[in-house]
């Protein structure tokens, strides 16, 4: 093991394809494992810095590093679990342990964590890594999470929360999105799990349909958290409460860089709030344009966004908003992108030609108009870059517009 880890540290910047081709030079090194460790360490640099920097950790499967949580989302899940538990000393059982990143973040908040993983290789690696990280409150289990084994895995552990991150790949490695196609199947296991704990926390693909998932899981769905960071929707978190029957809230969260324990950029609402909400349509463009972040968009928070921040929507089907209030614009920066509107005009050949002439470099976005962003960029003749952003947007009041903006 020491020789393998030393080799990984020495060749961290090497071409892994070349290492495999030249593996005969190092007959005493398991090159497949070494390459998996090297590529996993590289992945973890932008995800979990503490794991990347620890030379004593081993990663037998690089796919696990690709799929694991980042520090930002790991911290968020741990804080959410702490809120769910509602007590100082609490326990959580992670039935789909994988690389162990989520279990490790839970261990920073929980008094005790049960890490369970069905792949023996991953399980042994996680046990080694937890020790190397100085973590001593994680129990290890190597079992398949299915109806007949749930009791054996968690009954003596007495968890306050059971956490699952079902594998989203089916036969042949094909990605799947329906909850019943994931492994393990939460729909099959939830009743058995509820015999042992009140709370279940599930991580799902950001591609999953929130309404469909909650309908399938049933009335015990209490909260849905749509979590984004670095401009990308990362995951859906579903909190199920055995004693809850009152519908679910949706919380759209944009995690900023440096992730604070309790992010300010979080908007909570119910599906009924969105259905009954009203977004005032802008009659003029104001001074600032707001483009919602990935969480608000995924959560379907269109009417509630307008109502909550007192901003106006460009059009019923154009999910961009405008305001003239600088303090509101400052707050909105945490929830998406905010631009100062420099000028706007009807979207026509003349305005496109003029904007392209004045801005040789600009980012370009088309929304709810009869052309794509790439098509608009081509017509403008500008290249990507610079501090200008040109929008082609549909206004219900003013028709199709070309807006020249600057990100703030």
Structural account:
With 408 residues, this protein is α/β, with parallel strands linked by helices. It has three domains: 2-66, no CATH class; 69-269, Rossmann fold (3-Layer(aba) Sandwich); 274-407. It has 17 helices and 16 strands. Strand 15 (388-395) and strand 16 (399-407) form a beta hairpin. Helix 1 (2-10) crosses helix 3 and helix 6 crosses helix 7. The chain is globular. The termini are far apart.
What number is the mean pLDDT? 93
The general outline is globular
Q: Biggest β-sheet: count, sense, barrel?
A: 9 strands, mixed
Domains (count): 3
Number of helices: 17
Low-confidence segments, given as residue ranges, are none
CATH architecture level-2 label of the largest domain: 3-Layer(aba) Sandwich
Provide the CATH topology of the largest domain: Rossmann fold
The radius of gyration is: 24 Å
Please count the beta strands (DSSP E, at least 2 residues each): 16
SS-based class: alpha/beta
CATH class type of the largest domain: Alpha Beta
Assigned CATH superfamily of the largest domain: Vaccinia Virus protein VP39
Instruction: Report how far the terminal alpha carbons are from each other.
Output: 50 Å
**Beta strand %:** 15-25%
Which strand order spans the largest sheet, edge to edge or round the barrel?
A: 3-2-1-4-5-7-6-8-9
Helix content: 25-40%
């Amino acid at each position: 093991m020491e020789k393998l880890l030393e080799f990984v540290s020495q060749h961290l910047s090497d071409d892994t394809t070349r290492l495999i081709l030249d593996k005969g030079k190092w007959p005493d090194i398991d090159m497949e494992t070494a390459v998996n460790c090297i590529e996993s360490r590289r992945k973890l640099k932008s995800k979990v810095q503490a794991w990347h920097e620890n030379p004593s950790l081993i990663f037998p499967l690089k796919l696990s590093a690709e799929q694991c949580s980042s520090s930002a989302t790991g911290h968020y899940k741990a804080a959410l679990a702490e809120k769910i538990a509602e007590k100082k000393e609490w326990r959580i059982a992670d039935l789909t342990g994988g690389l162990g990143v989520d279990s490790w973040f839970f261990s920073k908040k929980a008094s005790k964590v049960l890490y369970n993983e069905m792949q023996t290789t991953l399980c042994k690696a996680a046990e080694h890594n937890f020790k190397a990280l100085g973590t001593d409150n994680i129990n290890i289990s190597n079992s398949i999470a299915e109806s007949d084994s749930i009791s054996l895995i968690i009954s003596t552990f007495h968890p306050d929360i059971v956490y699952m991150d079902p594998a989203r790949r089916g036969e042949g490695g094909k990605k799947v999105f329906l909850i019943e196609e994931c492994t393990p199947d939460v729909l099959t296991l939830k009743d058995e799990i509820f015999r042992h704990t009140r709370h279940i926390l599930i991580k799902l693909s950001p591609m999953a349909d929130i309404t469909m998932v909650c309908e399938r899981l049933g009335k015990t769905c209490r909260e849905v958290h749509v979590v984004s960071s670095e401009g990308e929707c990362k995951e859906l978190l579903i909190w199920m409460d055995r004693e809850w029957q009152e519908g679910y809230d949706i919380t759209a969260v944009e995690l900023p860089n440096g992730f604070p324990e309790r992010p300010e950029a979080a908007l909570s609402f119910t599906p009924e709030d969105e259905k009954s909400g009203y977004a005032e349509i802008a009659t003029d463009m104001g001074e600032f344009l707001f483009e919602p972040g990935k969480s608000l968009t995924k959560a379907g928070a269109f009417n509630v966004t307008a109502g909550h921040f007192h901003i106006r929507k460009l059009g019923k089907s154009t999910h961009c908003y405008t305001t003239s209030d600088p303090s509101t614009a400052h707050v909105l920066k945490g929830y998406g992108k905010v631009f100062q509107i420099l000028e706007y005009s009807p979207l026509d050949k003349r305005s496109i030609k003029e904007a392209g002439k004045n801005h040789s470099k600009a980012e370009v976005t088309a929304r709810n108009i009869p052309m794509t962003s790439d098509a608009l960029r081509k017509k403008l003749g500008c290249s990507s870059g610079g501090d200008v952003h040109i929008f082609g947007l549909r206004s219900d009041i003013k028709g199709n517009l070309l807006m020249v903006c600057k990100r703030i």
